[in-house]
Prior knowledge:
This protein is mostly helical. It has one domain (9-44). It has helices at 9-12, 17-44. The longest helix has 28 residues, at 17-44.
Amino acid sequence: QCCDEGKSYLTTVPDSPATKAYIDIINRIEKYCDDFTSSQNSDTGEKTNE
Length: 50
């Protein structure tokens, strides 16, 4: 129901198993993207703005 009211489920019930699962998925996607970008940059010799 919180989403029906325009509230974020992730911040409304941060301790729920569903929220923890979503955050885990988000973290895995971010890590994959970071690793992929790093490997692409090392293959091309490009530098990142980190």
